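so the lab meeting is tmrw and i was supposed to have these ready like two days ago... anyway. pasting both below. for each one the top line is the aa sequence and the line under it is the structure tokens. i havent really looked at them closely yet so no promises
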Amino acid sequence: MLEAAVKKQLRDFSLDLSLRVENGEILVLMGDNGAGKSTTLNILAGLVCPDSGKIRINGSTVCDTEAGTAVSVEHRKIGYVFQRSAVFPHLTVAENIAFGLRAQHHDTAFTAAQVSRWIDRMNICDLAGVKASGLSGGQKQRVALARALATEPSLLMLDEPFSGLDTESRRSVKEVVRQCVGELKIPCIIVTHRPGDARDTGDRICRIVRGRIVWEGPCSALPDGR
């Protein structure tokens, strides 16, 4: 479970949010550009320091400004998939998935087993030896998800994960996200601008305006739309 209450003074407004995401739940953050959604993810990941607040993941405190606690990015056990599917174009699919595991200094056998597991899980076995530069947008997104999940994160965060995908890729990636979050029973936060994506994928939504939650409710309450 994720529990977070953070404040951060931004250029035009003050971000002030409290979030709670249960294991196996997908929380969607929606709002206009510049509302503070991506900044929120970066604070949770440890890429941006909050001015004040506390962040707990599965009962462990990774940030507490009052106590002076700030766990480093690499030790927060967060799978973070950026909007641009940040795969390494010069590496193969298998090498991309192994990258995070090697950074965590896992042994060769464990790394190979995880790579094999997630290549199979994402249905990209035929692409294992293909360099990422030759992949489609949907394939790159699956590789980015596999790389994030192979490290067995305690929290998954996706920033506009369906942006730029064609209709079929969008549908399949949504399905994979929901299945994996449910199976792994980890909290997940998705940032998206599209009500249809939120409704199809998420359980609960927080609408953010200038760094504050102005509405919260089930994604099923959103109107249909692309």
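ok protien two:
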Amino acid sequence: MIPTGSAQAKPTVQDVQHRVDRLYRAAEQASERYNQIHVQLTQMRGDVSALRADQARQQKQTEQARQVVANSIVRQYEGDSLSAVGQAVVSSNPKAFVSQLTTMSAFNSMQAGQYSSYLTQAKALSLRQQATRTQLAKVAQLEQQAAQDKATIDKNLASAKSLLGKLKAAEQQRLLDASRGTPRIPANIPASGRAAIAIHYAMAQIGKAYVYGASGPSAYDCSGLTMRAWGAAGVGLAHSSSAQFGEGTHISASQLQPGDLVFYYHPISHVGMYIGNGMIVNAENPSAGIRVTGLYSMPYAGAVRPG
């Protein structure tokens, strides 16, 4: 009898490794988007606060202009204007009559100017209200994107853990050992000044855990590690690999010096720190944690010298 099918082959450790790596990669891409969104949200929430303060100031100016117009209308019907009309009506002196009309005309022109000022202020207020609404809508959209990226991180991380969990303990340990590799930590890294401080910080974190969105002290993601390392040297960086790519002097691979930041993938979604000798220290993924690896162990995208 000819068989109609065959049992599905059991995946090898290498198969699982590749699948886990792809899941980690997708999770890191989502994580770095998530980090970048939070960098943008911090700026945008500051903008919203400024817009609201500006709107409040404009609201006050608009109310003041409205009160001026309201008061002038009251005066027109209850005050000086009625008196001027009465004097004009009873005046038998033509010159006095013309003089009173001129006074009334001047008053009405002033009132028209006040009304025009009010319209200008009201329009300015409307523009500020619309700007605030627009910025709030952008914030809401980014917050929704952040939530979606967080869901992607959680889903891919859970899938990776599930794959690892299906392996026998010994096979799983071999996979983890293979992913970590043997770190080739140099005995001496030629660096000075702020770069030396940043390198010292990053190297001291080797062996710690990789956690999406973390920035120390017990766990890091890729940009969290480089942010904290250079922060220890007094250089502020955003918690985002794509943002860090714009926060320094761009250099070629041939110009690399210890302490420089090296970026990977297109679009950029991973960053490590160059330590010389063709090696980087980086927060790699949840299996590998923070370790030393080769400069070209991932698709190279460019490099930046902070500070």
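from a quick look at the 2nd one: Strands lie at 209-210, 219-220, 249-251, 261-264, 270-276, 279-285, 289-294, 300-305. The CA atoms of residues 129 and 174 lie 60 Å apart. will dig more after coffe
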